[in-house]
């Protein structure tokens, strides 16, 4: 049998899926989901919702399928979806975009990230700065591109970075500053001071800012402010988002990237050799979703906020210390008050003890900084109210 090698091995090792001797390491997500299945525990580990998309979005998809829109869409995306994305950015954020040159539809946000990193990074001398803990794909994609991942730790309980550590991380070797805001896995929304420093550093070191904004409509205490709207940011920022989190259609994998035409063109040059195109009948449905009334988006955020509050109250009642998230699907809690010293061990015991599945925050951290998150646990609040209430009751009874 041939030994697997090359870029895949770099990506797998970067994501922590291979040991140095090449042995496969199962992901914590697969392990915890399997544990939920075996024990019947409520799965608050993986971040997918258990409700459905708004009815007009589903009906638009059915209509597109029935009317035969099932073949390859245009390479940049369906023109109506490109127009809807441009309308969305102008309406919500005052960002003017040319739908023909400054927007690209992708197979979810992850493909947009992959194509962007592969397009803009050129080997081991280039660095990509990310905030840690980070969405697990970031390390794999940077490794796939052969570049170096540089992390800036976020601090419990507000998960804002130390600006001196941020300044030390960004250098003339930095090609990309990758910003996930609202942030997965912590639920943080970065302060204006942090956002302004990111833009200042990118300008000083001639770096591209790449923003992962898939939770843009899921903020609870203040409206989302894209980094590209800050003074001096637009010309060096690529903004990425998707329909999956906002409309509860994570399986459709419809995302997009927008920004300066020359940068989007570079991403397209890579993207066309990845999936080429995707999700033909779902693209018109997402266009419908993006044009729904503002009240629809407000209601989606309100439902997630109520879930956050229900879960947070349940975690506090059980004895956890809780970081109240400002956005996203997730709530991070500290299990140290319950006697935990190792979040991974705690999460492996939790299904049997409480009938609830969660994910250790160390799964999203590099080896160098895992000690900073040793007892922190991530719970997904993107579930039905009855599920969150039952999970809260189980946790309170267990502890």
Automatic annotation (TrEMBL):
Domain of life: Bacteria
Residues annotated as domain Aminotransferase class I/classII large: 42-380
Listed cofactors: pyridoxal 5'-phosphate
GO molecular function: kynurenine-oxoglutarate transaminase activity; pyridoxal phosphate binding
Keyword Cytoplasm among record annotations: no
A Pfam family this chain is assigned to: Aminotran_1_2
Gene Ontology CC: one annotated term: cytoplasm
Keyword DNA repair found: no
Keywords: Aminotransferase, Pyridoxal phosphate, Transferase
Family under the similarity heading: Belongs to the class-I pyridoxal-phosphate-dependent aminotransferase family.
PANTHER family membership: FI04487P
Protein name: Aminotransferase class I/II-fold pyridoxal phosphate-dependent enzyme
Source species of the chain: Microbacterium oleivorans
């Amino acid at each position: 049998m041939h030994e697997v090698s090359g870029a895949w091995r770099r990506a797998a090792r970067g994501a922590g899926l291979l040991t140095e001797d090449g042995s496969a390491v199962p992901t914590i997500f697969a392990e915890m989901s399997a544990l939920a299945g075996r024990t019947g525990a409520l799965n608050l580990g993986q971040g997918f919702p258990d409700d459905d998309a708004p009815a007009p979005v589903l009906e638009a998809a059915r209509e597109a399928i029935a009317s035969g829109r099932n073949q390859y869409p245009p390479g940049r995306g369906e023109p109506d979806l490109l127009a809807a994305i441009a309308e969305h950015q102008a309406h919500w954020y005052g960002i003017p975009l040319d739908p023909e040159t400054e927007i690209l539809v992708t197979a979810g946000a992850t493909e947009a990230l992959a194509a962007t990193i592969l397009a803009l990074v050129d080997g081991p001398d280039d660095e990509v700065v990310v905030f840690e803990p980070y969405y697990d794909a970031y390390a794999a994609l940077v490794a796939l591109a052969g570049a170096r991942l540089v992390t800036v730790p976020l601090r419990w309980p507000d998960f804002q970075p130390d600006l001196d550590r941020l300044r030390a991380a960004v250098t003339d070797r930095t090609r990309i500053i990758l910003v996930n805001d609202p942030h997965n896995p912590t639920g943080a929304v970065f302060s204006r001071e942090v956002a302004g420093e990111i833009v200042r550093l990118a300008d000083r070191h001639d770096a591209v800012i790449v923003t992962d904004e898939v939770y843009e409509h899921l903020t609870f205490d203040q409206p989302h402010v894209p980094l590209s709207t800050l003074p001096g940011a637009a010309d060096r920022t690529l903004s990425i988002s998707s329909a999956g989190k906002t409309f509860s259609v994570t399986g459709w994998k419809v995302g997009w990237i927008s920004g300066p035409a020359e940068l989007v063109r570079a991403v397209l040059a890579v993207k066309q050799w990845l999936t080429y195109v995707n999700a033909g009948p779902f693209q018109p449905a997402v266009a419908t979703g993006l044009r729904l009334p503002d009240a629809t988006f407000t209601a989606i955020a309100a439902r997630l906020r109520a879930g956050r509050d229900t879960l947070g109250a349940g975690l506090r009642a059980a004895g956890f210390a809780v970081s109240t998230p400002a956005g996203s699907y997730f709530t991070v809690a500290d299990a140290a008050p319950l006697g935990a010293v190792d979040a991974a061990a705690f999460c492996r015991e939790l299904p049997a003890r409480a009938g609830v599945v969660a994910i250790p925050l160390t799964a999203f951290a590099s080896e160098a900084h895992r000690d900073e998150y040793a007892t922190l646990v991530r719970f997904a609040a993107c579930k039905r109210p009855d599920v969150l209430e039952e999970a809260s009751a189980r946790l309170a009874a267990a502890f």
